[in-house]
Amino acid sequence: MSQTNFLIGRGELLTRPVTPPKRKPTKADAYTLEEALRRLVPQFSNVATSLDSLPSAACPGDFGVARLMMNPSYIARSYFPVAMLKRVGLESVGSRTVKVTPDAWTKKSKIQECTTTELFVIGKRNSFRNLEDWAKHIEPETDEASDISRIERFSAVTTKDRLAIYNDDPGSFFEVGLHLLPDQLFVKNEFSKYAKRINAKIFSDYSFTAGSLWFVPIEIDPKNIEKLAEFIFVRIIRPAPKLRSFFPLCRNTGVSINCTLPSEQPLSSEPRVAILDGGLPTDHAAKPWVKSYHILDAKAKDNPNGPMHGLAVTSAFLFGPVQPHGTASRPFSYVDHLRVLDEDAESENPLELYRTLGLVEQVLLSRQYEFINLSLGPDLPIEDTDVHAWTSVIDELLNDGETLMTVAVGNNGACDHLSGNARVQVPSDCVNALAVGSANDTCDRWARAPYSAIGPGRSPGVVKPDLMAFGGDTQKYFHVLAPGKKPTLTPQQGTSFASPYLLRSAVGIRAILGAELSPLAIKALLVHGADPAGHDKLEVGWGKIPEELLSIIACPDGVARVVYQGKLKPSKYLRAPLPLPEGGLAGNIRLKATFCYASPTDPQDAAAYTRAGLEVVFRPNETRTNPKGTHGKSRSFFDLNKFATEDERRSDMGKWETVLHCSQNMRGTTLNNPAFDIHYTAREGGGPPTKAENISYALIITIEAPKHPNLYNDILRSYSKILAPIRPQISLPIRM
Questions:
Q1: Which of 420, 471, 493, 501 has the fewest CB atoms in 10 Å of its CB?
Q2: How far is CA 484 from the centre of its chain?
Q3: What is the per-residue pLDDT for 352?
């Protein structure tokens, strides 16, 4: 048997810092200063009048909030109106994306409706009163003049803007998101007083703070909801969502299906894995592989369907889909099961949604686990304008890249597509987690299971689901363990099982190759190895992961796969050379690359959610430079056009995506010391950061050169003092 060539590691040792390229000229203005003032001065006056009409109780501290819409030509970080806001005594407390048909823009094409960024700006009401006079005396050719020329609209925040209520009977429980000031207690205390005035009951024990937003559930007569929306710090009010129901697609035939469980212990005892779900039944056949079982609220009883669902999800992770009357695959690791859902989770009390999130947060804060699966969440498709508390809290706790969390996208894919009700559900819009959809088969002729939720995600994070894994279908069920001491199976289907099945592959890579690969690198490897099989990215994201792990971690003849892992410094440029054998490459080759990085987030800024962005250019030949250039000519590699909207292609949004993945065909002879140049750009609140931290990244590069069957070994010989194979840490079984 020929030797298996595993991944090549230490690619980061090839990297080096480089000097930045010259900046391009500044973009022309959409409006002259005179045009901007003629348009905006009346709007400044209207906003001041609107804020003055509000009762003092709704404007504690005499604060007011307005909406500042940027012209669509200026939604990049560099155009953030820092100078103007500072001069007039206002500051941005958040942002969102909105649709607008601008009066003018810098493009030569015909003006049409598109998305832009809208800032929420806060200040004393007197600052808004002074805007009109300030604008009339603004000096031309100043930063403030440039800022005001890039504003499309300035308007008041109405009660309608703050309400997201889509049915006639929303009930009496609502979720309120509020903008916080540095003195958070001020806003919380004043809101509590205001709510009491209109007989609204606040449940602050179930509240969450994410970024500069405070999410708190309340109970109120719906007739008073518009009065509540007058409170100027309110960002959003929506009916409190319920948790997704257990087993929406379950098929219990009542027929006992036998199976045989493996006799071996897991492949490795090192990976630290947790399933967050509905608990486990008293008797079940997976006990030898469940390292520990924690009930996070010991006072609560099990949910009626919780233990069965929890066992099914745990079984999907441990064994994958088990063939009826067959022998289950050997687990890659042990697993801890933590019950975060209990008897109250499906009750009519929507406060249980927040209680459950509190238990999830508790697990993430413990930093005990490298791998976590979450097959539950609110029964709520994502929105483009605002980020939910579940998403915000989870993303914040995953921003160091040290935990790989898989999240089921939801089983609402058969709902109406045009209305957005079929879109992935909260919190699978996390940018620091892996959102997993369900494929209907394990074979090459797979497709999205009809129930599996679809994209797009919010931008950034537009590719959702991230990945697909088999989750069962009416023609081919996903068989999992049923409760009871004897190993029997029950047929299932749902993204609840696709998600832990994908996590099984992630843990399998960790079990085989050891701790040399970070969870972030494993995430990148899974994306790198995925195959969309020709399906639309809106339905399948980057594609379905292979059933065989060796196709991800091994290199066949003529293929070399290199892993780069490390840290990126803000504002710096890093060059990542591609290792090629001495003498170069001949013939046609295929180059595939995947970047993954973990990003801090700004939950209050839906339009600028990720704080870290990468600008990546490919330089195929260092000797071919531009006139007076010091670097090889660059060409784009990661083609945003394949999955982005026109608005995202027009803007700089692509560089804020935490996953970049593409492949290109080229002639080997065109490559001469090729490299990727990586520029890490930081932002905060949509604008320049006050302080930016280093971020973790992983880069996977695959070179396929059919005319070089010994490519793998030739590269290792050429870089013998730098690169080395990532060898298995255990003896591999024949069957995985």
A1: 420
A2: 37
A3: 82
